[in-house]
Design a protein that fits this description.
single chain; nine-stranded mixed β-sheet; alpha/beta; five-stranded parallel β-sheet
Length: about 475
């Protein structure tokens, strides 16, 4: 995927409603210095200098999804205790919908305390409940699911084996997802995956896949054998096996496997990386990405997550920046229209005058460059609408364009005078002009004012049209004729 496609993905995230089911917990971090040994016993003394309390377990999935821009609801059970109150307050502050969050008087809200010194975890202290929730709580969860499931675009199941996800709840959510056509994405735990039968997608790591399938994964063949066994026995649509430094492998019935290599980076902590993967993957499916595309973005996000210490979220801008950095080209200027309209509105709010022009720009030549440089002088920011290949063929014939749309876009983006490039598939740029709302609309001098498409839109909001003369004797057609005559 290109950077502009990833940007558009996150632009759509705000419209997505996600339901997260799973075991909620608190992650407490005590950061300190360990510079001496206790006189009482041969153990380190940690002088705590900072404390940090974060959402853990399914709560980290919620935190990731909120950070990615989604609208999130939770369905879970916590204890009616101080930790439960803290957890509820943290979720409220995130803007999470809590109608599906239930309490049990006798249940202990899970809390994991990690003591860290010199960026190393010294010890972890767990305070939690592992027993199944009561029948009353289970019925409450099932009733919530039945009443609210149709309103969600994707359902995420985050299982930490703390007793919230009973076999009955899991069976109900998988069945409901099938009936509604809503993806159910599961981060599984344990050795018996029968409870997840009928889910859309499972995301085990390599060790978990080994245990669940009964196949030792030592090479490519054993990996595929394990995946086939899980796909078939659990009636899944897909299986994504995360493989640490080996990346990820996506398996679907009757389709070739897709292997996504990891990006080499320094690893500080793998805690919560699986939560990041399932969050980005689920959001991608809800936003209409194809599974390989969603998995690819999730892999990028996981690479960022492991470079952070503790359960941390990965932000959209971090993912977009990582994609742009890895591609190392001018594509940061190439935007899809949904992203571009917001960017331009922000620039205009800061007082910048927006200029727009459009064209095919096939075989870019000096006439094009001088025209674009002149257009840029009419304002502070130049947006160029570029005809897609299909649009060029309709306008100029089946033999055009000579240069395909992606290459033409990147060539334009390399010009300093251009701030943004947007492709459009229609014969005219009216839709782009309506979205961008330029202050100045620029066209070539071979047009008259009454021929300029979008003139009424621009002038209606107080803008103007400028006509710029092309350099005489410079055109793509003449270049083609010269090549044919000479060669």
């Amino acid at each position: 995927m290109e950077r502009r496609e990833v940007e558009s993905f996150f632009e759509r995230a705000a419209q997505v409603r996600v339901l997260v089911l799973g075991d909620l917990m608190l992650d407490e971090y005590l950061w300190g210095r360990a510079e001496r040994i206790s006189p009482e016993a041969p153990v380190q003394v940690v002088e705590v200098v900072r404390e940090d309390l974060r959402l853990g377990g399914a709560g980290n999935v919620v935190h990731n999804l909120v950070a990615l821009g989604a609208r999130v609801s939770i369905c879970s059970v916590i204890g009616a205790d101080p930790n439960g109150a803290v957890l509820r307050q943290a979720l409220q502050e995130q803007g999470v919908e809590l109608a599906g969050l239930f309490e049990e008087a006798e249940r202990k809200t899970s809390k994991k305390t990690r003591v860290i010194a010199a960026n190393q975890q010294i010890v972890r202290i767990d305070r939690e409940s592992r027993s199944e929730v009561t029948e009353h709580s289970q019925k409450a969860m099932l009733a919530y699911l039945e009443a609210n499931a149709p309103g969600f675009n994707v359902i995420v199941v985050s299982d930490y084996l703390k007793g919230v996800l009973t076999p009955e709840v899991l069976a109900a959510v998988c069945r409901t997802g099938r009936e509604l056509g809503t993806p159910v994405v599961v981060d599984p735990k344990g050795s018996d995956y029968v409870k997840y039968r009928g889910a859309t997608l499972l995301t085990p790591n390599r060790k978990e896949a080994e245990i669940a399938s009964g196949v030792a994964i030592v090479d490519q063949q054993s990996l595929e054998t394990a995946a086939a066994r899980l796909l078939g026995s659990l009636e899944l649509d897909a299986l994504l096996i995360t493989r640490s430094e080996a990346g990820m492998s996506l398996f679907r019935s009757e389709l070739p496997a897709v292997h996504i290599p990891t990006v080499a980076r320094e690893v500080y902590d793998v805690t919560g990386a699986g939560d990041t993967v399932i969050s980005v993957l689920s959001l991608g499916l809800a936003c209409g990405l194809k599974l390989p595309e969603a998995a690819w973005v999730a892999n990028v996000a996981a690479g960022i997550a492991v470079g952070k210490l503790g359960t941390s979220v990965v932000l959209p801008q971090e993912i977009v920046a990582e994609v742009g950095h890895s591609q190392k080209d001018a594509d940061a200027k190439i935007k899809n229209l949904d992203v571009l309209s917001h960017l331009v509105a922000g620039e205009r709010a800061r007082g910048k005058r927006v200029v727009f022009t459009n064209g095919c720009f096939d075989l870019l030549h000096v006439g094009h460059v001088k025209y674009l440089q002149k257009a840029r002088q009419f304002g502070d920011l130049l947006v160029v609408g570029l005809n897609s290949d299909a649009s060029v063929r309709r306008l100029k014939g089946e033999r055009r364009p000579l240069i395909e749309e992606s290459e033409r876009a990147h060539i334009l983006a390399a010009l300093d005078c251009i701030d943004f490039v947007v492709l459009f598939d229609e014969d005219t740029p009216v839709r782009v002009i309506e979205a961008v709302q330029p202050d100045v609309l620029v066209k070539g001098g071979d047009y008259s004012l009454d021929q300029v498409v979008g003139r009424e839109i621009v002038e209606a909001r107080g803008g103007r049209v400028e006509l710029v003369q092309f350099v005489d004797g410079r055109s793509t057609s003449r270049i083609i004729e010269k090549i044919l005559a000479s060669y």
